[in-house]
Task: structure prediction
Amino acid sequence: MGDETAHSVTTNNPLVQDDSGVAHRPESHIPSKTLAGRLANAFVGLTLWNGLITLSVIIALGAFLLEWQRGLLLEYFRQGRPFDRFALILIVLVFLPQQFERLKLPGMLGLILGGVLLGPYGLAVTAKVGEVAEFFSELGRVFLMFICGLEINLSDFRRYAKSSTVFGVATFSGPMIGGFALGQVFGYSINASVLIGSLLASHTLLGFPILQKLGLVRRPFAMTTIGATIFTDIAALLVLAVCLSVHVSGILDWFTLVALLGALAVYSVFVMGAIPAVGRYYFRAHEKDEIGQFQFILTVIVICAVGAKFIGLEDIVGAFLCGIAVNQVIQQGPAREKIEFLAKSLFIPAFLMVVGGTMNLPGFIETFSQGLPFVLGIIGVLCLGKFAAAYLTGWVYRYSRAERLSMWALSLPQLAATLAATVTAHNSMNAAGERLIGVQVVNVVIVLMVLTATLGPILTDWFGQQVQQNLVSDSS
Result:
């Protein structure tokens, strides 16, 4: 027994040599279950430099809590330079999106929450959204729609044009009609009701990476859903353009409508034809000039946005079409990566934080307390409309039950395009100073974003695995 004990000690604590070559056994540090023991083990081997770092962190945290309790820290940022407040914005930008993604929620919701916390209705670090923030927000809104267009591949739409059109019309019409009826029931104007319906009609392919992971991207049901996204996004933006024109002018006549549709048709042909042609020539002439390519794309985005506004459309319509056109020129490359990096790291976060900063938190809570039937109605219309469209299209093209449910899950999330259109409509005012939609609709859309962005990917993964299992069983 003694030999076994000695052998165990020898095995657990092998001999080591110090600098002088003398062999000895190191001291064993037995893990302790007590708090004091854990603290003692944590400080074992702590160098002087690490000790100073730890001490400085403790002192800094203590000073931070003391100043926060007195209210001096917040007052410093409120009275300080914009550069001081920019430091807080960067902290929010770095940490909050990551925490939301750990909870399986989109990081953009963390940025909106960050804007709420720093805005006038939160900690009131800033009394109002300044002109610089508004400028970056406008850039972010434009770049957000450009990125949406950039993700659309026209070749995929052409390959499954028939089924994509059928599903696009169905998944657009159902929520559109339901949203319009709901708006009428709750007392909104005809124009606002049409817009509410269009906000529910489009969708964001948030579950696309899940399809890639499962190896289902090239399946017919997936390609049909991806192609339908082009139809729904363009149709929703067209309805937005018409509603905004009617709201500002106060009239809807056939001449105005035909003129607007004609301007959109000419503009779309110009953007979709001229940009790819000029872009290919420019990229061949500047093949190795990455900065020149980056500046060319940046210029094209802004020109398309300004051009759309010039002919009476919204700038986000021009940015979306520009994204589709640019995608025909550069599938991948350094210039595209730089544009996406600039948009996703600076402009789009600025837009999302400004959305949060202008959100009336008491009004948001009031939406639940007083407008719960409207919130539930919007959620019901969206879910039922998208489900009916997916089931009908799947029945026509003989998709399996799991594939139909996957199409439904893919078409549920309401994020980028819906948020950009909602904010644009809310900011639109007529001659009487009336907004097209009120803050209640904006709050409902944000609730919808949270719900569908959580539910959509979960259901996509669940039903996608069922499709995968069916394929395996069929092959065997």
Notes: The longest strand covers residues 16-17. Residues 439-475 form the longest helix (37 residues). The radius of gyration is 28 Å. Confidence is low (pLDDT under 50) at residues 4-13.
